[in-house]
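Team,

Forwarding the record for the chain on the shared tracking sheet. I've put the sequence and predicted structure together so nobody has to dig through attachments.
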Amino acid sequence: MNERNKKGQYLRGSVPSNKIILPKDELIELSKKYGCIIIARHFKVSKQTVLRNMEEYGIEKRGIPKTLPEYWKKALQKPKSVPAWGKGLTKETNKSLKQISDSLKGSRNPRWKNELHTGEKVECACGCGELVDKYDKKGRRRYYVYGHYRENQFKKGLIPWNTDKMMPPDSIKKGENASGYKDGRCLIPNFCIDCGKEISYSSIRCVGCAHKKELNPAWLGGKSFEEYGEEFTEGLKETIRERDNYTCQECGFTQEELGYTLSIHHMDYNKKNNNPDNLISLCRSCHQQTNFRREDWMGYFQNKIMGAG
C-alpha cells in the first residue's frame, strides 16, 4: 500500500500507485539461476522493481546471506562523534586560542580597514561644529551629521518650484504625431471571435477561449463530455463506497480522514459500463492521476483485480 500525507501527497520512499507487478512463478524460476540485474533485463524493468516484487513474494535474494558476517556488522556501525578540539575553551583559559586572537588583532586582521576601524572623526560640513565619523559602515566618505544639510538643498516641507505648473501643450504628442503610432489599429476596439469579450488589438481569442476543446493540447476528442449510463445513479455510487469501506483503494485514506465524498472511477474508461466490478472508489488525488496514461492504468487495474481474485 502506498503512503500519503493528509494532503494526499506521496511520502518519500513510498511505492507508486502504478507499480509494475511481475508474475510470481516465472520470477521464482529465474531467481534460482540468475541475479536481479539479468532478471530486470528479461522483464525490461528496473532493478528496484525486481527487488520489490521479490520482497513482496518472499523470494530469497541471491548473494545476500541471511545472517551478516561480523566484518559487515562493524562496517555498518555508526561511528562515534568526536567533539571539536576547541569546544568549551576560551582565550582566557587556553594558550593556543590566546595566540590566535593576538595574531589577528588590529591591522593584522585580513578584514581590517583603516577607514572603518580607526574611528577617525571630522566636523560636520554645515558648520554646526558637531563631529561625525569620517566613513560609514560601507567605507563611504561622510560630510554631514544625519539631518544636517548644506544651503539650498531640498529639505522636508519645502515646496518644489514646479508645483501647480503644467507641461507645455506641444510636449505631448498624440495620434499620428506620436512616436509609437503605426496605423491606428490600437484605437479600434477588438473582440474575441468566440465569446465577444473585448481584447487586445493584436489577438484573435481571449485567454479562456484560446485553451478550449480542440485548441487545448490535452484534448481527447470530447471524452469528458460523454454521458454516463442510466444505471450510474447516486444510489449505485453509495453502494460502491460502502463495498470499499469508504476507503480510497489506492492511497488507503478513508472518506472521514479526507473530509469529502470519494469519487467512483470506471476502470475501463467506458462510462456506459456500470458493472460494479468495473467501478472503484478513489480520492480526488488518485482519481486525477488516472486521467493520464490511461492504457497503463487499465492494465494496472486489471492485474489488481486478478491478484485480488
